[in-house]
Amino acid sequence: xxxxxxxxxxxxxxxxxxxxxxxxxxxxxxxxxxxxxxxxxxxxxxxxxxxxxxxxxxxxxxxxxxxxxxxxxxxxxxxxxxxxxxxxxxxxxxxxxxxxxxxxxxxxxxxxxxxxxxxxxxxxxxxxxxxxxxxxxxxxxxxxxxxxxxxxxxxxxxxxxxxxxxxxxxxxxxxxxxxxxxxxxxxxxxxxxxxxxxxxxxxxxxxxxxxxxxxxxxxxxxxxxxxxxxxxxxxxxxxxxxxxxxxxxxxxxxxxx
Amino acid sequence: xxxxxxxxxxxxxxxxxxxxxxxxxxxxxxxxxxxxxxxxxxxxxxxxxxxxxxxxxxxxxxxxxxxxxxxxxxxxxxxxxxxxxxxxxxxxxxxxxxxxxxxxxxxxxxxxxxxxxxxxxxxxxxxxxxxxxxxxxxxxxxxxxxxxxxxxxxxxxxxxxxxxxxxxxxxxxxxxxxxxxxxxxxxxxxxxxxxxxxxxxxxxxxxxxxxxxxxxxxxxxxxxxxxxxxxxxxxxxxxxxxxxxxxxxx
Lengths: 257, 250
What we know:
The structure holds 2 protein chains of 2 kinds. By secondary structure, chain A is an all-alpha fold. Chain A is about 85% helix and about 0% strand. Chain A has 2 domains: about 1-35; about 35-255, MetI-like (MetI-like fold, Orthogonal Bundle). Chain B has 2 domains: about 10-80 and about 155-250, Rossmann fold, CATH 3.40.50; about 90-155, no CATH class. Chain B has 9 helices and 10 strands. The interface of A and B includes residues 153, 160, 173 and 247 of A.
């Protein structure tokens, strides 16, 4: 009975998306909207297949920027969260600045980065780091600080050092938080790279979309969007997969519930 | 009250602990002999856990001293083992790896520590559950793992802070018998916090009654005979009198 319900839960969104795609196709094919204003789903897939090698080349650039930025962000977040957790003064000083930094629109900062770092790959990676850093750090800090105080007292009573408390208790119990932040950051990473490219560059999906838009090739713009969506979803599930592999007990919890 | 008959493993002398400039516990004198089971009986929230935190070295008392084997250990952690009401098992570790935590903290290599824990599993009736994660265990089993972990740290002096308080009445009775059985095998000394008179009488060799504000030791009672089962205990006339005597003092 539960198994059928699970399949149903997965089918509902798929059916919903299919219905929208069919309606979209119909609206365009019946001539309600002009093809050069809104290409139909089949037009988009066709455009994608026709320009496959070109698009994949640009996709690879964007993917590289996104991954590099994400890894740098993870590294910085780990350091930042650990320092903020171990030294409350640092947390008090930096946390509000972190929040303020997130209120500045990234689209305004990106052109500045281009002015400072040129039109190469560096400013794109910088944008990715900026958007990914925050969700990972905030989640990790929250995880580190919400560890059970009694549990910490227990290991302290066993004579554990600060380092042992962190490595054996705090960090493992913060892992689920870390991964929720990481999943958000991963989906942002591709978007961040595209925004960086959109404001000027030599290659990448952002650059490609900009060129396609200038040529009124909206089917190619949509094809790029499709690639971005698929790439982001793949990253999301990839990280969810890593999480499941690293934390088998979480899977047990789901099975029991 | 300060006398030690057999070999005295733990001695608490004149401990006073305050919180927010108000004394919570005052001038506490207790001792624990080797192999003995001693309960500290008092109403909830009277400061029993504060006393344990002092003995465990998590708090340094305003006044007084804690001695283990005649050596002063006031404010020193890592000397006695401590078990809480909540099992506090690490959800990301299976039963064996939860058990090795205190050994790991002492710096014993994981492989060696695992062997030690595995050897103890049968004593705790966990021989088939070593690879299970806490989420797969029942409440009583979790407390057995927690007890195993406590004994892996030290069985010389174990502080048990209402370890069965979170269990249902039937599981609790089972766990009490089971605890005595284990203690017979491993020969540990236990200081046990409870607010349950029957539990204290059933388990203990001696009972300290603690009460008042600030809390202090009102009475030290020696339980005449250990009984085979809680059922037998509840119907014994001598113990009925003891129970009503304790009730009057609380």
